[in-house]
Every structure is written in C-alpha cells, then in structure tokens.
C-alpha cells in the first residue's frame, strides 16, 4: 500500500492498481497525481478565468467546487484572463445547455444515463466541443440546478482536455472507491457532484456524437488506444458506403453566428 498526500498531509492509502487508476482519474477532477511520491496537487494553479453573468451565490458555489484545482476564478471582466466565460439564462432555447465558441454555437442535450461510459458519467455527458479563449454558456431555466456543476466541468476540460485519458480499465466500483479515498477527502463539495448513482433518464433527448474534426486540437497519438487522449464525441465507425450524416454541418452565412442544431429532423 502507498500513502496519498494532499498539500503535505496524508489523506489515505491505495494499492498499486489504484495508484495507476488515480493517475488517469485525477485530471477529471482538476488534479494532477505524481505516483512516485504519492502527491496530489492542483491541476489549474497557473490559470485564471474571468466569469460574468452569474450571481454572487452562484459564484461562491462554483468557487468552492473548484477550490481544490487552484484555478483563479474572477467574478469580473479581466483582459489578462486565460479564459473569458459569459453565463446566460435563455428561455428560448430547447436544450439544457448551449455553448458558443469561436462564433459557432453548439446546442447540447444531456444524454441518457443508460449504457453510458464512465467518462461520460463523471461529467453528466457534458463536454466542451471545441477550444477557445472566450465562451458563452446559455442554460435553459430547467437546467439551473445543474448549472454550477456543469460550469465546473467545462472549466476543467478547457485546460486539462489533453490530459483526459480513456477510462476503459477503471470500473465504476473502483472509481467510487478511489474517489472516496481522494477527492472526497480533498473537496467534499466537488465530490458530491461526482456521486455517480442510478438516476432516472434525463427528460432531454440523447446528445448526438460530435464528429472527430471538432477535436482538431487533440494531437494524433501512436500509443495504444487505452492511452490516447479521450475523444468523447468521436462518432462510431461505419464501414458502409452510405454517406454518413453529419449532425454538425451547417449553412455558411456571412456576418452571422453559425448555430449548430444536431437534433433537427433528419
């Protein structure tokens, strides 16, 4: 058994297999793990985010949820910020969350809880579809209760997306056990959001697969599949000759923001 330390304090002990899994899991929580000395450390300590459009109460909850990451979260406009985030509530959208990055809007639907892979369960199926220095996030009022949690996930992905590896070798049982020994001890607020359990399927239809080209900033790896950077939106392989439907194809209109609606009737 090996000791796990957080800021110089021993918080638990794990075995060799759990140590390997923790190294893969820690970036999902905004942490980095050094197996040689058993030290968990802040994964976003060198980044700062300017966030606007949220109440003081929402900001405080978000700050507490991400406190363990070391992220400098500013509830005001700052030109020096690494990432600018604007939060809006929109009754008009028919999606739980809509994200605009680089003048392109992605309307996301939270997927069903049925037959979901672990990496999708960790983030409620909410993924940042592209990289950018400025993000506008719109929430449907029905998603208000999940907004703080989803924002925290998107912020972690914004900076650690290349560190998120597939979790094929981590079972749900192992995940819960390791989470209880680590993130639960470090930040119970964030850990509560990670309390993966069986819940009713979302009222929202399933999220369509995002084509591989939306992951253009993820470098191609020559490592085995289980070690590659995770691509949660990569479409399933189809060997047929039929032209594959691209749910994210949109018409080009000059001087207008492109809105992607992957759920418009085929």
From TrEMBL:
The protein depicted here goes by the name: Uncharacterized protein
Stretches for region Disordered: 221-247
Q: Which domain of life is it from?
A: Bacteria
Biological source species: Guptibacillus hwajinpoensis
Q: What is the lineage of its organism?
A: Bacteria, Bacillati, Bacillota, Bacilli, Bacillales
């Amino acid at each position: 058994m090996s000791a796990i330390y957080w800021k110089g304090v021993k918080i638990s002990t794990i075995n060799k297999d759990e140590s390997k899994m923790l190294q893969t899991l820690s970036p999902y929580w905004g942490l980095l793990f050094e197996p040689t000395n058993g030290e968990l450390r802040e994964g976003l300590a060198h980044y700062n985010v300017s966030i606007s459009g949220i109440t003081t109460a929402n900001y405080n909850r978000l700050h507490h949820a991400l406190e363990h990451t070391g992220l400098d979260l500013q509830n005001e406009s700052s030109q020096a910020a690494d990432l600018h985030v604007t939060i809006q509530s929109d009754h008009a959208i028919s999606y739980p969350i809509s994200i605009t990055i680089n003048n392109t809007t992605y309307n996301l639907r939270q997927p069903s809880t049925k037959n979901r892979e672990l990496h999708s369960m960790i983030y409620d199926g909410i993924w940042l579809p592209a990289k950018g220095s400025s993000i506008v996030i719109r929430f449907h009022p029905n998603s208000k209760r999940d907004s703080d949690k989803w924002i925290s996930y998107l912020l972690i992905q914004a900076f650690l997306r290349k560190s998120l590896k597939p979790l094929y070798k981590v079972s749900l049982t192992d995940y819960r056990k390791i989470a209880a020994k680590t993130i639960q001890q470090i930040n119970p607020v964030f850990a509560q959001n990670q309390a993966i359990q069986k819940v009713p399927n979302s009222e929202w239809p399933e999220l369509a697969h995002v084509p591989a080209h939306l992951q253009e900033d993820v470098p191609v790896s020559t490592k085995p599949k289980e070690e590659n950077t995770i691509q949660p939106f990569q479409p399933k392989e189809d060997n047929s000759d039929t032209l594959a439907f691209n749910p994210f194809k949109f018409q080009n209109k000059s001087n207008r923001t492109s809105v992607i609606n992957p759920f418009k009737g085929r």
